[in-house]
UniProtKB/TrEMBL annotation:
Single GO MF annotation: glycosyltransferase activity
Keywords (A to Z) from UniProt: Carbohydrate metabolism, Fucose metabolism, Glycoprotein, Glycosyltransferase, Membrane, Signal-anchor, Transferase, Transmembrane, Transmembrane helix
Presence of keyword Ligase: no
InterPro entries: FucosylTrfase_pln, GDP-Fuc_O-FucTrfase
Membrane topology: Single-pass type II membrane protein
Pathway assignment: Glycan metabolism
TM region(s), chain numbering: 64-82
Entry protein name: O-fucosyltransferase family protein
Length: 535
């Protein structure tokens, strides 16, 4: 299905001309001359010619022809306008032949007035940074700020230029231009706000005489916070640096045009570099030649297991290694973790074997290609044996492409993740084993592209059913029926975003289900989310 294009975003409801978001102006079009204007033009010309003739009785043959042509043109114009008016009034919209009705808003072009310069350090992994940058652009647009191309925070454990040593592991860091197409980013959003690659010389000179004002915006904030609290800071200091970008806008209670702007940035403005797009599309092409494929975001990397404290099917040496890693990381606050309890609550990544069993219960074709969209699996190939027993056609980008294709990016986790994102977006089915940032944003992006199938595995239900089946308390048919029933509303279709006032971390993430930007479904096709608890 073709990509749905976001329309230009306008001012917030109730804004006056002196609001921070700036004045709005209409730009005169040049597509044609209206009927009324043409008719008046002819009448004016006729009158002018008549007044200039001192003696109409003695008109020459040329003047008579002018009068005849003028009157004829006037009659033709009036007849044409009348027919167009009748056609418009009698016109009926054709019967809908498509499943979707795309949202559209006609908003005039705005007049930009700069209120200051915003610089940001985008924190987190690739997908956390991408959604955070989208929010920063949106904030800059509605506060009429000039945005400097974001920096990528290289202090987070999840980051990958500069090299950081952490627990004897080399992590290579990338910058914005290494992952995203900078020129496209600036050009695609130029009608909404001004984005520059660096501060202008005069602003740089100002910072030599005073320190840069830095701010970590309040999490899950609405636009009132930015208008009332943040904008005055820009008016005072002109240049402000945001230290964090993740979750700085609320999921809900924002005007629709703000939400649409978030979508425009995320789905249209932030495009990966041509090099990364080329690699991702090459992987997709190779897979397509062999048939349909499922992209499995298998969160079973060493860092994820250490962070969550989940140790199902691990031996004592592995548990000790992961525990030591968790205690050594200062960013991870939770140290002592009950793995069994956490798994029963559905808060652990599923093991490869558990994922295989769940997909088989859902009747996913065992011959389908399963693309592993993940970093290095902890335990490597041995750990994948449980999944391979159900789905033998396991592939990864490292096995599909020659090493020369990945040579420039293989040591950069965020660039490798970008390739996985491209492949996951194009897959016939997407299935994450854990609800991290990539799982959420890819599901939302696939919704945006036309509700492409995404299996959102309900881990809390699945671990209970799997344990019963493995212990012999359930037959296969009972197990399979129960799994299918539990996932009827978890296939990436249209649902109402789960909203929990006052508890933003427990409600659905905006980018998981950006319903304000999605095609409107017919009433009979709409539904409500069935997973009322976060799993």
């Amino acid at each position: 299905m073709d990509k749905i294009s976001c329309t230009k975003v306008g001012v917030l409801p109730g804004e006056s001309e002196d609001k921070p978001s700036g004045k709005m102006g209409y730009k005169v079009g040049s597509r044609g001359i209206k009927c009324e204007k043409l008719r008046n033009l002819i009448i004016r010309a006729v009158k002018t010619h008549k007044s200039n003739s001192s003696n109409p009785a003695s008109s020459t043959p040329g003047e008579s022809r002018f009068w005849a042509i003028g009157i004829t043109l006037l009659l033709i114009v009036m007849w044409t306008c009348g027919m167009q008016s009748m056609a418009f009034q009698n016109a009926k919209w054709p019967a809908a032949t498509l499943k979707f009705i795309h949202p559209a808003v006609i908003i005039p072009e705005r007049v930009y007035r700069n209120n200051g310069y915003l610089t940001v350090s985008s924190n987190g992994g690739l997908n956390q940074m991408r959604s955070g940058i989208s929010d920063m652009v949106t904030i800059a647009r509605f506060l009429n700020l000039t945005l400097v191309v974001p920096e990528l925070d290289n202090t987070s454990f999840w980051q990958d230029n500069r090299i950081i040593r952490f627990i004897n592991t080399l992590i290579f860091c990338s910058q914005f231009g290494d992952i995203f197409d900078v020129d496209h980013f600036i050009d695609s959003l130029k009608e909404e706000l001004k984005i520059v690659k660096e501060l202008p010389p005069y602003q740089k000179y100002k910072l030599k005489s005073r320190p840069l004002f830095q701010l970590a915006p309040r999490s899950w904030s609405n636009m009132s916070y930015y208008y009332d609290t943040v904008l005055p800071i820009f008016r005072k200091f002109e240049i402000v640096h945001f230290l964090k970008t993740d979750a700085r806008l609320s999921n809900n209670e924002l005007p629709e045009n703000v939400q649409k702007m978030r979508c425009k940035v995320y789905y249209e403005g932030l495009r990966f570099t041509p090099h990364l797009e080329k690699i991702g599309k090459k992987v997709v092409s190779i897979l397509r030649k062999k048939g349909p494929f499922l992209a499995l975001h298998l969160r079973y990397e060493k860092d994820m297991l250490a962070f969550t404290g989940c140790t199902k099917e691990l031996n004592k040496q592995e548990v000790d290694e992961l525990t030591s890693m968790r205690y050594a990381c200062p960013w991870w606050k939770e140290k002592k973790i009950n793995s069994t309890q956490k798994r029963e609550e559905g808060l652990c990544p599923m093991t490869p074997g558990e994922v295989g069993l769940a997909l088989k219960a859902l009747d996913i074709d065992p011959e389908i290609q399963v693309y592993i969209a993940a970093g290095e699996i902890y335990g490597k190939e041995k750990r994948l044996e449980g999944l391979r027993a159900f789905y033998p056609n396991l592939v990864k980008k490292e096995t599909l492409l020659p090493s020369s294709d990945l040579g420039e990016i293989k040591d950069h986790s965020n660039r490798m993740a970008a390739v996985d994102y491209i492949v996951s977006l194009a897959s016939d089915i997407f299935a994450p084993s854990y609800d991290g940032n990539m799982a959420k944003v890819v599901e939302g992006h696939r919704r945006y592209l036309g509700y492409k199938t995404t299996i959102r595995l309900d881990r809390k239900v699945l671990v209970t059913l799997i344990d019963k089946y493995k212990s012999g308390k359930m037959r296969w048919d009972e197990f399979s029926d129960s799994v299918k029933k539990a996932h009827r509303g978890l296939m990436g279709g249209p649902v109402e975003r789960l909203k929990i006032p006052g508890k933003p971390k427990e409600e659905d993430y905006f980018y998981l289900d950006p319903e304000e930007c999605l095609p409107k479904m017919y009433p009979s096709s709409q539904g409500k989310r069935s997973d009322k608890k976060k799993h």
